[in-house]
Amino acid sequence: MTILKLKPIFKERIWGGRKLATDFHYQIPDGPIGECWGISAHHHGDSIIEEGELAGKLLSELWRDYRHRLFGDYEMDEFPLLIKILDAKDDLSVQVHPNDQQAVEINDESYGKTECWYVLEAEPNAEITLGHKAKTKEEMERLTFEGKWDELLQKLPVKRGDFILVESGTIHAIGKGIVIYETQQSSDTTYRVYDYDRIDSKGKKRDLHLDKAIQVTTVPNSPAHINAEKETVTSGEKTTFIEVPQFTVIHHKIIGSDYQVELRETFQLLSIIEGSGKVITGTEILEVKKGDHFIITREVKKLVASGEMEWITSYI
Question: Which residues are catalytic?
Answer without folding.
Answer: 192
